[in-house]
Write a structure and sequence with these properties.
By secondary structure, the chain is an alpha/beta fold. Helices cover about 30% and strands about 20% of the residues.
């Protein structure tokens, strides 16, 4: 299933790559640098590489795609003119299964409702030599950790939480589908050389504290954009106390601080995990190059000399946290939640507790939560909130069922959902959510933006570890502190929960009857992928027309977005997931969650052609029909969240030519560039305030578009007064060629035809 021959070949040359890089740069290397420099498209690193500035070409080892993003990625790949993928690639069907009733019913409904999409993904995978994981097999990142991730490797994936594989010592980076197409087509993959944040872990966790609390704490320190453009590299004696899946949890949620990726050094915990998941030969190979799978000693001795920023966290002092609501970086120790909730008027009655997802669905996670459930059952407690469990893979599900954990959850009154993303990504059919009542839920997922889980903007979602979520679900109280607070059982007795107990790995090994995996075939190159032209789920793509490297005048403002504008705001998930393979249909959700600066309303913008207010897609379609180019203006960290390239493709498809913001989230900025748009940044952030509702934008020097040179926009206001805005950008020459060609894919296709 995983290519051991390929990995061993890479390991054989890695030592030489590392030694050459150290000699060339004249200094010791961090772990991240060893892996990055071993995956250069060129043999030698350049002395000119500058962290946070230089664009560097890499050759990743693998590509992983989930079913929602794979649709558009593969539709683009079909346009690239290739017969077969150039690197091992997989598709995982996990996003389109809606959680509602129980695992089997929900899976059957998904198979019925999404049969057209699943058939398309399976046929495309077969045609182009891609491994296919069937619906119900598990969540992409857990499946990758169990089967594909390897220490020292480099992988890209069309999901921001691809970074889960960092728990096994892999540089794993979330990207848009266009980036995946580059790699699958055999092209070098471009990345701005990340800065390095070193996080030193000391001590040892105990009691109720878990790996989840490490990243919850760090998110509070760095905020949702503090890791942007950086790799977070964990080191220190404390790392050796964390399980492999615990490390994965920490890396996974690193996406919520904007980090390019996160990574741990190879150690005995990883070796144990590789052996337990049937990869003992890989562990033997990794052991032989162990020195290259960790930072050099000099780095560990003087980390501040080698990392751009160093943060220290003492695991012994760390306490359980809850992060939220509405943002994953608002970090609160459980001991302080009562006071803070009261101060902010957060509802403390917890309606639902949810555990699982790609970041907290390992055997260890479930076993620790199950130990709390078992205690509750023995003590005569019942959950006061609804309680749901989402296993990470079929392998995990069958193993926890064999070991009695599901029985304990069922006895407690919990509901077990399918091995899929479900509520974590808005695929949760929650009864009563349409009423938009103010309420509180707790979950072990990563994201808790408004409307994220259930579509209700008034659902206050808090992020915690599975064991803390389980305890709070039993209590029904957000302010419940299991370390010291008693509970009342059915007999009226006060009882105290003991700290959770769990196992890193199952004592009797993992068990699974059928992984749900379909190997890529070698005989399907001539097969055809048929898409019904009348389908509302799938639509063949047409190349985007170049915007032109000339003056672009009379550009109208579509929306000036106020405050947080994530990819969820730009292209909502939930019910819109079913249109991820149909660009025209899904474009009807474009920017419908963004707040209009001028009226403080959502999905209500002024149409300058008639002076009327309408929903954003309708206004933009009117501009497109009349051949009027438009611009979107945004605030800080615009495009935060997922790798969702639809957030870039929808505006491009409907005629938006530029996005001008105070700052971008990394993946979204790249996605805009890939689709042939202008991704611009205010040189003076206060110029954001100059933008008025009826402004006309003239790009006066776009014909001189070049690397390192700002672009100037002339604003003409309604009263005929003007302002000039200077815009920064991060385009290099290759990216400018994408713009000139109309998209990166257009450029690839033109090169392929030569």
């Amino acid at each position: 299933m995983f290519d051991l021959k390929m990995i061993n070949k890479y390991y054989e040359r890695m030592d030489n790559s590392v030694q050459v890089a150290k000699k060339k740069l004249g200094r010791p290397l961090t772990l991240s640098e060893k892996i990055l420099y071993s995956h250069l498209s060129l043999e030698l690193p350049s002395l000119d590489y500058q962290r946070g500035k230089s664009y560097v070409d890499f050759i990743p080892d693998r590509v992983a795609m989930q079913d929602a993003t794979a649709q558009m990625a593969l539709l683009q790949f079909m346009m690239a003119g290739k017969d077969r993928v150039a690197v091992p690639s997989t598709v995982h069907c996990d996003h389109l299964i809606q959680a509602k009733t129980d695992a089997q019913i929900d899976l059957n409904n998904a198979l019925d409702n999404n049969s057209e999409v699943y058939s398309f993904l399976e046929s495309v995978s077969s045609k182009y030599g891609i491994g296919f994981w069937k619906p119900g097999a598990g969540i992409i990142h857990q499946v990758v950790l169990e089967n594909y991730a390897f220490p020292g490797g480099m992988m890209i994936g069309t999901d921001s939480h691809t970074v889960n594989a960092g728990g096994l010592g892999m540089i794993a980076i979330g990207v848009g589908g266009a980036d995946a197409v580059d790699v699958m087509a055999g092209m070098p993959w471009e990345l701005k050389l990340p800065k390095l944040i070193g996080v030193k872990l000391s001590g040892r966790m105990s009691n109720w504290t878990s790996a989840k609390d490490v990243i919850l704490k760090l998110a509070g320190i760095l905020t949702v954009k503090g890791g942007t453009g950086s790799i977070v590299e964990y080191f220190g004696e404390g790392t050796k106390t964390l399980s492999c899946t615990g490390k994965g949890t920490i890396c996974n949620m690193g996406a919520e601080i904007g980090a390019t990726t996160s990574i741990f050094s190879y150690d005995e915990k990883m070796e144990k995990y590789l052996t337990a998941t049937g990869r003992s030969e890989l562990a033997i190979s990794a052991n032989q190059i162990r020195d290259n799978l960790m930072p050099d000693d000099e780095v560990l001795e003087n980390p501040k000399d080698y990392y751009d920023q160093v943060i220290e966290i003492n695991l012994s002092d760390l306490e359980p946290h809850l992060n939220g609501p509405f943002t994953p970086d608002r970090s609160t120790p459980v001991s302080k939640m009562r006071d803070i909730a009261k101060k902010n008027n957060w509802p403390t009655e917890v309606k639902v507790g949810l555990i699982g997802s790609c970041t907290n669905s390992s055997y260890e996670d479930i076993s620790r939560a199950a130990s709390i459930a078992k205690q509750a059952n023995n003590l005569g407690l019942r959950t006061k909130a609804e309680f749901t469990i989402t296993p990470g893979s079929e392998q995990v599900r069958q193993t926890i069922e064999r070991d009695g954990f599901i029985e304990e959850f069922n006895t407690l009154g919990a509901k077990v959902f399918a091995n899929a993303c479900g509520p974590c990504i808005g695929q949760w059919s929650r009864d009563g959510a349409e009423k938009e009542e103010k309420n509180t839920i707790v979950h072990s997922f990563n994201r808790n933006f408004a409307k994220r889980a259930d579509g209700n903007p008034n659902t206050h979602a808090f992020v915690g570890s599975p064991e803390i979520v389980t305890a709070i679900a039993i209590s029904g109280d957000l302010a419940f502190n299991p370390l010291k607070d008693n509970l009342m059982n059915e007999d009226g007795e006060k009882v105290l929960l003991e700290p959770p107990k769990g196992l890193e790995l199952p004592e009797n090994g993992f068990t699974v009857d059928n992984l749900g995996y379909q190997e890529p075939t070698k005989k399907a190159r001539n097969s055809k992928v048929i898409i019904d032209p009348n389908s509302d789920r799938l639509q063949l793509l047409k190349p985007f027309m170049p915007l032109g490297k000339n003056k672009i005048n009379n550009v109208r403002l579509l929306i000036k977005a106020k405050g947080k504008c994530t990819t969820d705001h730009i292209s909502m998930a939930g019910p819109w997931l079913k249109f991820r393979g149909h660009l025209d249909n899904i474009s009807n959700n474009m920017l419908t969650g963004a707040v209009n600066f001028f009226n403080e309303k959502v999905n209500s913008v002024k149409n300058q052609l008639n002076g009327q207010y309408d929903c954003v897609p309708n206004v933009q379609r009117d501009y497109k029909f009349n051949n009027i180019p438009t611009i979107v203006v945004g605030d800080e960290n615009y495009g935060e969240g997922s790798s969702r390239e639809h957030a870039a493709m929808e505006p491009r498809f409907l005629g938006v030519m530029a996005v001008l913001v105070r700052s971008f989230a990394r993946i979204h900025e790249t996605n805009l560039k890939k689709q042939g748009m202008l991704a611009l940044i205010f040189k003076d952030k206060s110029d954001y305030d100059l933008i008025q509702e009826d402004d006309i934008f003239n790009f006066i020097d776009l014909d001189k578009f070049q690397e390192g040179k700002p672009i100037t926009i002339l604003l003409t206001h309604k009263d005929k007064t003007t302002d000039q805005i200077v815009c920064k950008h991060s385009y290099n020459q290759t990216q400018i060629e994408w713009f000139v060609a109309g998209s990166a894919l257009n450029l690839i296709r033109s090169q392929q035809s030569k």
